[in-house]
From TrEMBL:
InterPro entries: ARM-like, ARM-type_fold, CPL_dom, PUM-HD, PUM3, Pumilio_RNA-bd_rpt. It comes from the Eukaryota. One of its GO terms (cellular component) is nucleolus. SUPFAM superfamilies: ARM repeat. Coiled coil: none annotated. Residues 117-466 form the PUM-HD domain. Residues 61-85, 566-641 are annotated as: Disordered. GO terms for biological process: regulation of translation. The keyword NADP does not apply. This is Uncharacterized protein, isoform B.
Length: 735
């Protein structure tokens, strides 16, 4: 046991229960020495660690009376509580004291004054109108170039932005110096809540040598960083933007601790690690599995580097062990569909899964169906699922029905329309590349149903709702060239009443004189991002801002000059008006006496007439005034029957329609061609070729066209037309 000494005047947290003669103190130790006013008193220990203190033995100390308050006494006088209640706390003063105390604590640190000075400079640096920013960054660096001051700043919440701004606006050589101080601690900084933004700035604005040094500094910590919530995104960016050698080295760290210390240029994939030594296969695959499980447990599989390793892992696993391997990974399939490698791994997981696991996968992706369908790589997984799953009713219920409400959104998207096309026209080479079809059909061996049977069952279930959607909004399905091609491909595979319902609605749109479509630019060109030099981009942006600021300053000075000249002119005008008013008053008195109305003073003329502004100022003002406010850009449109792309779409529809017995589309189109429409069409070359396409292979439609032209007296219009299409149509009618 240890000896405890308690001084009642100092140790105010001890609690005493007392009366006029005795004090009792709670204790955890039996050997207690109690001092009152510095005088030791005798104690007596009782059971349970309670020490009884007799007040009678205190010499020279004041008596302790019941109800007294003080250090260590547990029962304050009730009257004192009432007095305390009437005393109000000045909270403003309290907050000010706390603020002052906090400031004093910060000042005790050696870096406070430096950080404060740099922050003040940062406020100037971050302004859009600031000039010579690179010079300001140099001054900031001169102040911070003390030991590891920069490293201390980037991990703090209030100073990390300062270093980020310095990395952005610094000159290339200074940016190299700042980066060289951060790179040795890159692995720790990637995991920091605030410092990782500086790593992002180095990757964005740094030179190729800086980026290369940064990646090298991360070697040996790749697996740990991929398992960190913040650093995982940085590793994903590094892998996507790295060269082939850097990618190989990053993947090698997942193969075991051996490759964390030394890299091997001969190892290009996981299979190469045990190609010459098969006895190491089990240990290497075990290491990869452990690393992947560690990352999967943290739900950080949405990473291109992890996807690449995962695909290699599945590909080298023995086929008899694949089912056991992919079952735990099936739950993470939604996280794997963001990259090409991840999608391939997800497809293999689905192929080798049991029926129970497949149902779980479908349930897991159900809430993300629309995003997956419209994703560059995710839509491939859905198509593979449609091609391999035997339960076609589950496809209709779990995949098509949730997507049906967003059918227009899907068809408008470059990737979403491929999912719809595969449901209606699977394996159609006019919609899909032969290489893509070959890859997807590798999954046929994992299903039990015949390919033709499965595809026909899917078509039977989806053609009715799709034809209904076309009948309800036919203008959308012919709104642009891309959607029009999808419409033509779908119509090619619809059957019976579903086809007739769709073409009846579409024929009305095509036969409308006011049918217009949007001109859509090439989606592929819009998606391409041209590489650009960061330094050039920054310098050009700075120059543009400088020019804008100069123009603004000129405009302000011109405006001030106008204001001053206007004020002087107004002062002179007022003097003249005062003199005239006096004269007019006299005249009005005379006029009123004579009965004539008083004359009103003339209005002041415009500023332009009184004050001539310099030419440069006039031009600036004119530009500013005539610049209209930004409005939403109107979607350019063109008449549908004149558009080249839509002309191709209509010809495709007619071509497939002619293969049917009653040519429903041609008949419906002729039913809606009245005199106004035909007169309009005969003046358009492409419209005449559409009529030629309708009648050239169908005698019934040719007779129908002849009768229509005779009834409406349109033969003369055809003969007068000079377009090649009209001449060819005239020849067909005369045959």
């Amino acid at each position: 046991m240890s000896n405890v000494e308690v001084n009642l005047k100092v140790y105010s947290d001890c609690r005493l229960v007392y009366d006029s003669k005795t004090c009792v103190k709670s204790a955890v130790d039996s050997n207690v020495t109690v001092n009152v006013d510095g005088v030791p008193i005798s104690t007596q220990t009782t059971g349970g660690g309670v020490v009884t203190v007799s007040v009678d033995h205190i010499n020279g100390s004041p008596d302790i009376q019941a109800g007294e308050t003080g250090p260590g006494l547990s029962r304050p006088n009730p009257s004192d509580n009432r007095k305390m209640a009437h005393t109000k706390t000045d909270w403003n003063q309290f907050k000010q004291d706390r603020r002052q105390l906090r400031l004093e604590r910060k000042r005790r640190r050696g870096s406070y004054d430096i950080c404060l000075k740099v922050k003040q400079m940062y406020e100037v640096l971050r302004c859009r109108n600031a000039t010579h920013k690179h010079i300001l960054v140099e001054k900031m660096y001169t102040i911070l170039d003390i030991d590891d001051m920069i490293l201390k700043m980037i991990v703090a919440h209030d100073s990390s932005r300062v270093v980020q701004c310095m990395l952005k606006y610094a000159a290339p050589d200074l940016r190299e110096k700042i980066s060289s101080k951060l790179i040795p601690k890159a692995a720790e900084l990637c995991q920091s809540k605030y410092a990782h933004f500086c790593i992002n700035r180095m990757l964005k604005y740094g030179s190729p040598s800086t980026k290369k040094s940064l990646v090298k500094a991360l070697y040996g910590n790749v697996v740990r960083l991929c398992g960190h919530k913040i650093a995982s995104k940085i590793m994903d960016y590094i892998y996507l933007n790295g060269n082939s050698k850097e990618r190989r080295y990053l993947r090698q760290e997942f193969y075991g601790d051996l490759y964390k210390l030394a890299k091997d240029d001969k190892v290009k994939c996981l299979k190469d690690t045990f190609e010459n030594s098969p006895n190491m296969k089990a240990s290497i695959i075990g290491a990869v599995k452990a690393n992947l499980e560690h990352i999967a447990n943290k739900e950080l599989l949405d990473n291109s580097l992890v996807h690449a390793v995962l695909l290699e892992y599945i590909q080298v696993t023995d086929e008899e062990k694949l089912e056991e391997t992919v079952t735990p990974l099936a739950a993470y399939i939604p996280y794997m569909l963001s990259t090409k490698d991840g999608t391939e791994a997800a497809i293999l997981c689905f192929y080798y899964s049991t029926s129970k696991t497949r149902r779980a996968v479908i349930k897991k992706i159900k809430e993300h169906l629309l995003k997956i369908s419209m994703h560059e790589h995710g839509h491939t997984f859905l198509i593979a699922l449609l091609n391999a799953l035997d339960d076609t009713k589950a496809i209709k219920k779990s995949i098509f029905d949730p997507l049906y409400g967003d059918l227009k959104t899907l068809v408008s998207n470059n990737y979403g329309r491929r999912v719809v096309q595969w449901m209606v026209a699977p394996g159609d080479t006019s919609c899909f590349h032969p290489g893509f079809i070959e890859t997807i059909e590798l999954g046929l061996k994992f299903g039990k149903k015949d390919k033709a049977t499965r595809r026909q069952e899917i078509l039977d279930q989806v053609e009715a709702p799709i034809s209904l959607a076309m009948a309800e909004s036919p203008a959308f399905w012919l709104s642009n060239n891309h959607i029009g091609l999808v419409t033509a491909n779908i119509l090619k595979h619809l059957t019976g009443e579903h086809y007739e319902k769709a073409v009846t609605a579409l024929a009305q749109v095509i036969a409308d004189v006011n049918w217009r479509i949007a001109e859509v630019s090439d989606e592929g060109e819009l998606m391409k991002k041209k590489p650009q030099d960061v330094e050039t981009y920054i310098s050009n942006t700075i120059e543009e801002r400088k020019n804008k600021n100069k123009n603004k300053n000129k405009l302000k000075s011109a405006a001030l000059a106008l204001i001053t000249s206007d004020e002087e002119a107004d002062a002179e005008d007022k003097k003249k008006e005062n003199v005239k008013d006096k004269e007019n008053d006299k005249e009005e008195e005379g006029d009123e006496e004579e009965g004539t109305p008083a004359k009103k003073p003339k209005k002041a003329e415009t500023l332009d007439a009184d004050n001539e502004t310099p030419d440069a100022v006039k031009e600036t003002l004119t530009v500013e005034e005539e610049t209209p406010a930004k409005e939403e850009e109107a979607v350019p449109s063109i008449n549908g029957i004149e558009d080249a792309g839509m002309h191709h779409v209509i010809k495709k529809i007619i071509r497939s329609d002619l293969k049917r017995e009653s040519t429903p589309f041609g008949n419906q189109l002729f039913n809606h061609l009245n005199t106004d429409v035909l007169k309009f069409w005969l003046g358009i070359n492409r419209a005449c070729f559409i009529l030629v396409k309708l009648v050239e292979n169908s005698p019934d439609l040719l007779n129908k066209c002849r009768i229509l032209f005779k009834e409406e007296n349109l033969s003369q219009i055809v003969e007068d037309a000079q377009s090649p299409g009209a001449k060819l149509l005239l020849e067909k009618l005369k045959e």
